[in-house]
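Exercise 7. Given the encoded structure of a 489-residue chain, write a plausible sequence.
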């Protein structure tokens, strides 16, 4: 491993939180057991709870046993736990940073500060790290949300950029660590089967869908301020869109790839006309999920009983460039829907031989489906003769499942991303101008919504979402593709 001899301290602010225990500590453990970390490596977890390192290690053991993709290896765990320290202090007080400085004074290697905390603490922590001269030879990792709108995002960026250059700031979007997102460029650019057809001459529309069965859970206080548009569309969904629509980069360097993604965001536009022509928002009510009744959004913990926050968004947008001019990109994401899945569906245009159309009343278009989760892979739908018939045409599928044969034991998103942070590879992390353009687009939609009389449509938990989402496509002669696992179209 490159820089394996360089000491590394991994400092987690928010070390007692859910993110640290569900994702970060299991990911670090897996990297450690796979010999992917420097030999001189250690973790300092910082939190406000009153506990010592011994108790924290016990908590970490339980988290790894529950959430790690690898089983506990006692020998590996014994080594890993010896590298874990816990420090209690208030992020706003100077005393804790003085103690942290003392702990870090014995190393000359790299430091990674991971801010797994509320966004309210981002600027406070960075200011304190700078004041106590703790930012030299360091990298800073920030979880979303990075701001709540364009203005707040820019303000936070200016604050952090006072102390750190862009190449040492890692704005993390865990979606970019998912296996199939990393595979999307290879599917496109390493296959002559697809790339020549990847344009408005052959593509009818693109559907980017992320459905969740879960509700907001314990995130009610945050979610009620953000909603689906800012929590999902601004980051995860637009990342999927940019990877789908981007031009081939000149090389595979981080900035070359991110430059092409920015060009897509700059070219984004919504449909001219009424807001209802391109946007649907909804909020889930009580309903059945797998036979169990679940509460409506306004009944969730720490959510206002009069909340008008959306938990579902369907959006029609265009990428206004030569490749994609006139091709609608449909985005759909929501909570408490009938199934959990994330996929990109490319629907190709239908130009069939008239002789076949005369014999067959319905011919389905060709579809390329990139499945991101829970099943990872590529699904291609095309037409062929039904066995035993003379000329009847039926849709058939070629289905490549990437994670079916490995029992779900491939490296998880956070594991890949932490590995890249340690290596200093920023390819899968969001650059400042990406944030500016994505927030600018989202702010335009939010302002239009706030100034309009459009209604927030209620939908029952366990359903497919608001009825208006179907009408969004139906009025253009299209429909959402519901591709059920193991059943095809």
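Solution.
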């Amino acid at each position: 491993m490159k820089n394996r001899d360089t000491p590394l301290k991994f400092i987690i602010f928010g070390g007692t939180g859910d993110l640290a225990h569900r994702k970060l500590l299991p990911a670090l453990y897996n990297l450690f057991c796979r010999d992917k970390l420097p030999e001189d490596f250690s973790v300092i977890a910082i939190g406000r709870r009153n506990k010592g390192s011994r108790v924290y290690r016990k908590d970490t053991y339980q988290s790894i046993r529950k959430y790690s993709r690898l089983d506990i290896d006692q020998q590996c765990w014994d080594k890993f736990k010896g590298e874990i320290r816990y420090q209690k202090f208030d992020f706003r007080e100077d005393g804790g940073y003085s103690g942290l400085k003392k702990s870090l004074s014995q190393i000359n290697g790299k430091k990674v500060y991971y801010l797994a905390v509320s966004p309210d603490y981002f600027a406070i922590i960075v200011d304190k790290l700078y004041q106590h001269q703790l930012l030299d030879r360091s990298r800073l990792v920030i979880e979303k949300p990075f701001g709540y709108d364009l203005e707040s995002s820019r303000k936070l960026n200016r604050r952090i950029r006072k102390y750190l250059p862009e190449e040492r700031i890692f704005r993390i979007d865990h979606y970019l660590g998912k296996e199939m997102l990393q595979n999307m460029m290879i599917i496109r650019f390493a296959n002559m089967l697809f790339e020549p057809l990847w344009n408005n001459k052959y593509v009818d529309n693109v559907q980017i869908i992320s459905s969740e069965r879960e509700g907001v859970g314990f995130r009610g206080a945050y979610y009620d301020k953000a909603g689906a548009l800012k929590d999902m569309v601004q980051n995860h969904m637009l990342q999927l869109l940019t990877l789908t629509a981007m031009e081939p980069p000149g090389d595979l360097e981080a900035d070359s790839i991110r430059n092409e993604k920015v060009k897509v965001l700059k070219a984004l536009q919504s449909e001219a006309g009424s807001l209802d022509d391109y946007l649907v928002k909804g909020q889930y009510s009580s309903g059945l999920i797998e036979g169990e009744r679940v509460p409506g959004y306004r009944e969730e913990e720490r959510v206002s009983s009069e909340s008008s926050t959306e938990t579902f968004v369907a959006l029609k947008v265009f990428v206004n460039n030569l490749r994609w001019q006139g091709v609608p990109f449909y985005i759909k994401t929501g909570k408490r829907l009938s199934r959990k899945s994330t996929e990109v569906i490319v629907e190709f245009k239908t130009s069939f031989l008239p002789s076949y159309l005369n014999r067959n009343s319905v011919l389905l278009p060709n579809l390329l489906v990139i499945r991101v989760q829970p099943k990872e892979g590529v699904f291609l739908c095309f037409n062929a003769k039904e066995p035993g018939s003379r000329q009847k045409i039926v849709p058939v599928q070629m289905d490549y499942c990437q994670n079916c044969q490995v029992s779900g034991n491939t490296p998880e998103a956070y594991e890949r991303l932490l590995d890249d942070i340690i290596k200093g590879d920023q390819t899968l992390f969001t650059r400042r101008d990406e944030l500016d353009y994505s927030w600018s687009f989202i702010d335009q939609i939010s302002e239009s919504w706030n100034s309009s009389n459009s209604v927030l449509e209620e939908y029952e938990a366990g359903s497919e979402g608001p009825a208006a989402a179907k009408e969004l496509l139906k009025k253009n002669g299209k429909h959402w593709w519901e591709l059920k696992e193991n059943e095809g179209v």
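Remark. Residues 176-474 form a domain with the Dihydrodipicolinate Reductase; domain 2 fold (CATH 3.30.360.10). Students should compare their own answers with the one above.
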